[in-house]
């Protein structure tokens, strides 16, 4: 760096990063009707992966594919994978102190709320639960610490689960929060929240340890896209305007962990 040039604080660059991404997210997208089998074909060809972790926006799927957009996603996922996973995050436990494994609705998106009705299993984490349709389980994992090195999110890496973002303008990957915590991102703080959990058969008191931001931060998804593509680790599909992004959690882990060793703010600047 040249003499007299000061490094830009991450706390300043985060605002421009957030503004650019918000503009792109809000930009009108042109989505027209696609072949009804196009999503099925996009999710095929990943035979070495048995599980798919889905993040989805139903509006674009509805514009591109006939019928119920939720059903179209589930049909395509079930046709190609033995188990389908989805975030079941209920951050409001931090305030309410109450979590019902069967009935507490995911905070983010209509897809997750619909998926809850079909899920065969849900992890015990009252803040960052994972929903599963199919036979996949988190046996032996530590549920009481969200981002533990022997927890549920780390198991996704160990099992090399595939991630798909369907109908979103960027790759959405909630596993990134685990990488922030595991790599000691300076803007992530560990907190413990107490409350009660209804499991269906019993009610138990719990202390859940998780991480949360110390302010307003957002991922630099454009940078992450470029660098995953550079490594040939991100597949992108354009189904007449319906975007689909597919990557393996292990590839994301390898890239981000390496980058955060040199720059702990890598994901948010």
Structural commentary:
With 269 residues, the protein is α/β, with parallel strands linked by helices. The chain has one domain. The protein is 35% helix and 22% strand. It is built from 10 helices and 10 strands. The chain has helices at residues 10-26, 38-42, 58-64, 69-80, 93-96, 110-118, 152-158, 175-182, 221-230, 249-262; strands at 51-56, 83-87, 98-100, 121-122, 130-133, 162-166, 188-198, 203-213, 235-239, 242-248. The chain has a 7-stranded mixed sheet with strand order 4-5-2-1-6-10-9. It has a 3-stranded mixed sheet with strand order 3-7-8. Helix 8 runs parallel beside helix 10 (249-262). The radius of gyration is 19 Å and the shape is globular. Mean pLDDT is 92; it is low at 1-7.
Percent of sequence in beta strands: 15-25%
Indicate the overall shape: globular
Question: How far is the first residue's CA from the last residue's CA?
Answer: 18 Å
Percentage of residues in helical conformation: 25-40%
Short description:
With 269 residues, the chain is α/β, with parallel strands linked by helices. Helix content is 35%, strand content 22%.
Name its key features:
269 residues, alpha/beta, seven-stranded mixed β-sheet, three-stranded mixed β-sheet, 10 helices, 10 strands, globular, disordered N terminus
Question: Layout of helices and strands, plus pairs?
Answer:
Layout: H1 10-26, H2 38-42, E1 51-56, H3 58-64, H4 69-80, E2 83-87, H5 93-96, E3 98-100, H6 110-118, E4 121-122, E5 130-133, H7 152-158, E6 162-166, H8 175-182, E7 188-198, E8 203-213, H9 221-230, E9 235-239, E10 242-248, H10 249-262
Helix pairs in contact: 3-4, 8-10
């Amino acid at each position: 760096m040249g003499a007299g040039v000061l490094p830009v604080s991450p706390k300043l660059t985060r605002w421009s990063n957030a503004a650019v991404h918000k503009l792109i997210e809000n930009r009108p997208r042109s989505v027209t009707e696609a072949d009804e089998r196009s999503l099925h074909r996009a999710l095929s060809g990943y035979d070495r992966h048995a599980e798919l972790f889905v993040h989805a926006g139903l509006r674009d799927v509805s514009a591109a594919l006939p019928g119920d957009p939720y059903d179209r996603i589930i049909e395509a996922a079930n046709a190609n994978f033995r188990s389908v996973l989805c975030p079941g995050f209920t951050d409001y436990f931090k305030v309410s102190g109450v979590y019902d494994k069967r009935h507490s609705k995911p905070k983010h998106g209509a897809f997750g709320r619909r998926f809850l009705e079909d899920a065969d299993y849900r992890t015990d984490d009252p803040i960052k639960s994972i929903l599963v349709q199919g036979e996949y389980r988190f046996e032996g994992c530590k549920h009481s610490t969200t981002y533990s090195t022997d927890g549920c999110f780390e198991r996704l890496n160990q099992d090399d689960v595939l991630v798909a973002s369907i109908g979103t303008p960027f790759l959405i990957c909630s596993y990134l929060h685990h990488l922030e915590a595991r790599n000691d991102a300076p803007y992530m703080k560990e907190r413990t929240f107490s409350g009660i959990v209804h499991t269906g058969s019993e009610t138990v008191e719990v202390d859940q340890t998780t991480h949360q931001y110390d302010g307003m931060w957002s991922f630099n998804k454009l940078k992450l896209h470029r660098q995953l593509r550079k490594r040939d680790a991100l597949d992108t599909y354009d189904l007449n305007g319906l975007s689909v992004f597919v990557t393996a959690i292990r590839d994301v882990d390898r890239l981000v962990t390496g980058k955060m060793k040199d720059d702990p703010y890598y994901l948010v600047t």
